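Tutorial handout. Part one gives the primary structure; part two gives the three-dimensional structure as tokens.
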Amino acid sequence: MDPLKRFLAESNRRSFLAGTLGLGSAALGTLLNADCLAAEIASDQPNPADAITTAAPPAKRVIYLFQSGGPSQMDLFDYKPGLAKRFGQEVPTSVYPAERKTTMTSGQTSFPVAPSRFKFKQHGESGAWISETLPHLANVVDEICLVKSMFTEAINHDPAATLFQTGSVIAGRPSLGAWVDYGLGSENENLPSFVAMTSNGTAKTGQPLYDRLWGSGFLPGRYQGVKFRGQGDPILDLYDPAGVSRQQRRRMLDSLAELNGQRSDQFNDPAIVTRIAQYELAYRMQMSVPELIDLSDESAKTLAMYGDDATKVGTYAYNCLLARRLAERGVRFIQLYHRGWDAHNNTPKQVRAQCNDTDQATAALLRDLKQRGMLEDTLVIWGGEFGRTIYCQGKLTDSIYGRDHHPGCFTYWLAGGGIKRGYSYGATDDYSVNVTENPVHVHDLQATILSQLGLDHERLTYRYQGRYFRLTDVAGNVVRDIQA
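Part two.
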């Protein structure tokens, strides 16, 4: 036989392992010492408790009102009265260079200034300037801290939202809520520690919201957020089928846990342990969730405070009310996503519609938490993935203008949870294009949120693929100036 053909014929997997004692032994050793290997990997993980900096942090829980699409800062909070006289003038390239424009507007031949057509007034003892589109929030403005100097690098929706929710524009990292759950655990064994809910604006359009935004990434699966559906029962299969008693369900789960336990002992797969725990949580939720969503114990006054949509499943108002009920039952992290802020065309109409959908319920949530004595230890956050341009996208008229994506500056606000009340932080230039005072990056905001919960963002880490990861990656500074 030809020597080359003989070599190829004998070079199969079996002969390779048989003739390569070192590799075969290594593979066999790994299989025989799985328990030792698992223990070694586990011991290499940092203890999340080491990241806890205080036993009595100012905030015990978070309600994050994420406004998907990018709210227009100059139409809501960043008052620029001087722009009225610049209506229709070209935004100087020294202020807004061509390379910072998206492909949706970079081909325009003109970039005229589009001042906000909404009226602004000062409100509260703080004298904060608030748009006429937010009359309810204006009445509680002394409870909030406006951060007008937020900025980000991402200019498109998905990577920008992913950065805010996971600390990276690359999909697959653990979400903020998952990190909090990993660091602090749950306060209620009958409900998830992390719950996510979504709602749509009046226009019924918006950017996609993927489950990974509240996912656990490379953290164990038990830390991922549980999504409450926006129609029907919040959780599928919430009720036992007809003819199945609770005793039968309990026996079934006990038998299933025993089988899964055997597989876990055999393979040391953490996903199996997570599955056992999630089955048990699901069993307890069959009792706790029906009570949670039963609004019959809410007073007529409370329901009226949240608005006409307070009892309509899937609306923003309903989700805000449910967020308060979750918070008072010990849920650690509650994430609300509301779509519809992507106002490229008729911005005035879209902004007003979004505010009509959200303003009353947002203010009601703050009032409700305060009257129950919960605002002081509940951190409420409001904001989107970026802001909007001061130049007009499309045709500019006296009443209609469009706004493109703008990552250079935008506004967030925070309330409760040890944050200063009635305070405004940061500033932007005359065009609301660039931050001029106290810039706050996405990672700075994330570090501050963790700090309010008593967690050190630099020490809350998890080892994955040979390195230690954290929510804020290798950046982030706590914004001490807004802490009470």
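Part three, for discussion. The two ends are 85 Å apart (CA to CA). The first helix runs from residue 3 to 10.
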